[in-house]
From TrEMBL:
Gene3D superfamilies: 3.30.70.260, cca-adding enzyme, domain 2. SUPFAM superfamilies: ACT-like (SSF55021), HD-domain/PDEase-like (SSF109604), Nucleotidyltransferase (SSF81301). Keywords: Hydrolase, Magnesium, Multifunctional enzyme, Nucleotidyltransferase, Repeat, Transferase. SMART domains: HDc. NCBIfam families: PRK03381.1. PROSITE patterns: ACT (PS51671), HD (PS51831). It holds the Pfam family GlnD_UR_UTase. This is Unannotated protein. InterPro entries: ACT-like_dom_sf, ACT_dom, HD/PDEase_dom, HD_domain, NT_sf, PII_UdlTrfase/GS_AdlTrfase, Polymerase_NTP_transf_dom, UTase/UR. Residues 355-469 form the HD domain. The keyword Repeat applies.
């Protein structure tokens, strides 16, 4: 039975033997037979686990003990009555399928218990090849699940099983013991025996194999859960989620009508949607994307870059989607630099993950910090790629990472200034932790040193968030409350010391042409639509009036136009607006005439925007998704513009800008200008407001406005 039954016995493994009889022999005869068989084995030092049972007794025992049942599922006749053994196997197989609900529940519980006890094989310094998550025991469990009639991708396990079994065999031989834990002291010898260059190369392949097993295990349980929730006879229904992307059977997949060769951005779009919904990306979708891979044009279009940021920003839900794509080799085709760090081990006590998984875990932590920075997109990308320079023995990983990240960022379509910031973040990602714990923070030279390297407060803000995310992802040994406090103190001192800076891709004020200024003088509403490859630009010129921004934003929302960015500017008694929008799935772009008429009615109050947007928000609340941090609203007075600057940072939602503008209008202030950005799945809106006399708000009133807007957003979303 077990491994011996499958013909996969390792040198140090037990022999699992079952002596089956028809009940006609006396106990004394059975004892004599068993002793004659077993004593020579025991005398030779071979460990044996055995049982003597009838067919009926075997069936009853297997029904009561899942371990016995799983052993018999792999039964093999050594000698004797083949028909009797086949009958025992048939009994147990029939009961296994009949009681699959109970058996699978027990299998799942035991799998989770083992993972809790033994950890994840791919990320352990000294992994247990059999018991850890993604190990040989999980492969046996997957076979048993398949024998219950469930769909299991066993074909994806053959190379992983072969590698793990071979490593286990060599380990038993090298150690001279039947132990399955691959200790650091034995990894070099096992690697040499298996003709690997070194232990790192061995552990990389072990990580690759175990992650393949873990992926199939997760996929299997998801399919089982989806089948249960859908019901046996209930017809599957697809739901459109984006261009060429649908939800089907609790998975996100590619619509059969989509052309992945032409639509090169569909993979990132599907991944972003899946992660934000908290759903897996189907294996079929990943295979299709790999087989029909179409490179994204260089530089990436804005939509693909934002989809990447949206994927990373989904937090822990991102890992499952990212791993599915990585299993098919898609990630390194998008980001070739990823290939070198893929499955790369870190054989030190500080790190608990491989390099690639550590960067994913850092991105998960960074996603929780997006409200603390002005550029969440740069934080998330830096977190994902901060250790991209590792794995080159003759290079400092921070310096080499800086070399790699700048051209990579430019390929992704980031402007040059943003690429420079990303390069600085990667190069200096250890700076704050190192200085805070090794230098005297009361020494002015310490502050001067840091500010000489990071001279912009917003870059410092990003570096602080990256340091926190990196430390938390590394583990408690590398990041503690004490260390976090020191870093925060250092950042605070440096922030005070910094009096200026270049800024990060500063938002440009809306510049107007002479023709636009002339049309503004006409004091009439005009709308111009310019179609672009992956978005649409809409220019609006209108007389200024209270509630204009909310009317325009509301009109876009009910027209199913998603705002990606906006700039507005008040000139005298008129307002100029420039919007970049994308379309909802199955929505069509309205004509200039139709949009102008809808806007006119909205501004005049002839359309109940509030009701229609509330309906959209209500529908959105019913859609399952991932938990996100709450909105953050701050207000400060800007001496240069004589206005109060209101900053809103929150997860993007339908009607966000409308809700913000509506709340501000209710407060009785005037919106003089707006700079609106959607960075991945994060909305970052900056509004310049004044009282109706054109003055900035008092400090007390500005704080009250920020609190009111934040409270309103919390109730809405």
């Amino acid at each position: 039975m077990g491994g011996y039954g499958r013909g996969e016995l390792s040198p140090g493994s037990d022999l699992d033997l079952l002596i089956v009889h028809d009940g006609s022999a006396h106990e004394e005869q059975l004892a004599q037979f068993a002793n004659a068989l077993l004593y020579p084995l025991w005398d030779s030092g071979i460990p044996v686990d055995h049982a003597v049972r009838t067919r009926t007794h075997t069936r009853e025992t297997a029904q009561q003990d899942i371990r016995v049942a799983m052993g018999i599922l792999d039964i093999r006749t050594l000698e004797g009555n083949v028909d009797l053994v086949n009958a025992v196997a048939a009994d147990v197989a029939e009961d296994w399928r009949k009681n699959s609900k109970r058996n699978l529940s027990q299998l799942r519980a035991s799998s989770y218990e083992r993972a809790e006890r033994s950890g994840e094989l791919a990320f352990l310094l000294e992994p247990d090849l059999k018991e850890a998550r993604g190990g040989l025991r999980d492969i046996n469990a997957l076979r048993a699940i398949a024998q219950s009639g469930e769909d299991v991708a066993l074909d994806r396990l053959s190379s992983a099983e072969s590698l793990l079994a071979n490593v286990r065999d060599v380990l038993h031989g090298v150690s001279g013991k039947g132990r399955d834990q691959l200790l650091l002291t034995e990894q070099d010898r096992v690697a040499a025996e298996m003709k690997f260059i070194d232990a790192d190369a061995l552990m990389l392949e072990v990580a690759r194999a175990s992650r393949a097993v873990d992926y199939v295990m997760d996929l299997t349980w998801h399919r089982i859960d989806s089948s249960k929730s859908r019901g046996i006879f209930k017809k599957s229904k697809s739901e459109p989620l984006g261009k060429g992307v649908i939800a089907l059977n609790n998975e996100v997949t590619i619509d059969s009508s989509a052309d992945i060769l032409i639509d090169s951005g569909i993979g990132l779009r599907a991944a972003a949607i899946a992660a934000q919904r908290g759903l897996p990306l189907s294996v079929d979708a990943c295979i299709s994307l790999a087989e029909g891979f179409s490179p994204i044009s260089t530089p990436w279009p804005r939509s693909s870059r934002e989809d990447l940021v949206t994927l990373i920003g989904a937090g822990s839900a991102m890992i499952r989607v990212f791993e599915a794509l990585d299993q098919e080799g898609i990630i390194e085709r998008w980001i070739p630099e990823w290939g070198h760090v893929r499955f790369l081990p870190q054989r030190n006590v500080l790190h608990r993950h491989t390099v690639d998984r550590h960067m994913l875990e850092t991105a998960v932590r960074a996603a929780k910090l997006t409200r603390t920075v002005h550029r969440p997109d740069l934080l998330l990308v830096a977190a994902l790629l901060h250790d991209i320079g590792k794995g080159f023995p003759d290079k400092d990983h921070s310096d080499y990472g800086e070399e790699l990240i700048r051209p990579l960022a430019l390929r992704m379509g980031f402007p040059d200034l943003d690429a420079q910031v990303l390069a600085l973040l990667v190069k200096q990602h250890l700076l704050l932790s190192s200085v805070a714990t090794r230098r005297d923070l009361d020494d002015p030279a310490t502050i001067e040193y840091v500010t000489s390297l990071v001279s912009d407060p917003q870059v410092l803000e990003l570096l602080h968030a990256l340091s926190i995310a990196d430390g938390e992802a590394t583990g408690k040994t590398a990041w503690s409350n004490w260390k976090a406090g020191l870093v925060a103190d250092l950042v605070n001192r440096c922030t005070i010391a910094l009096t200026g800076g270049t800024g990060i891709a500063p938002a440009e004020q809306l510049e107007l042409t002479p023709q636009q200024l002339s049309r503004l003088d006409n004091k009439s509403l005009t709308v111009t639509i310019i179609e672009r490859d992956d978005a649409h630009e809409i220019e609006i010129l209108s007389p200024d009036q209270v509630g204009l921004l909310s009317a325009v934003a509301g009109t876009f929302s009910v027209s199913r136009l998603n705002v990606r960015s906006a700039r507005t500017r008040t000139v005298g008694e008129a307002v100029a607006m420039n919007w970049i929008v994308t379309l909802d799935p199955n929505a069509s772009l309205p004509s200039e005439e139709a949009l102008t008429e809808t806007l006119r009615k909205a501004i005049a109050g002839e359309i109940d925007l509030a009701k229609r947007i509330d309906e959209r928000i209500s529908s959105y609340r019913k859609i399952p998704g991932i938990p996100v941090p709450p909105p953050v609203v701050t207000a400060t007075n800007d001496i240069a513009t004589q206005a109060t600057v209101l900053e809103i940072r929150m997860h993007d939602r339908p009607g966000v800008l409308y809700s913000v503008a509506r709340a501000i209008s209710r407060f009785g202030v005037d919106i003089r200008a707006a700079i609106v950005s959607t960075l991945g799945a994060e909305a970052f809106d900056t509004l310049y407001v004044t009282d109706f006399a054109g003055e900035a708000l008092t400090e007390e009133r500005a704080k009250l406005l920020a609190n009111q807007v934040e409270s309103y957003l919390l109730t809405q979303y």
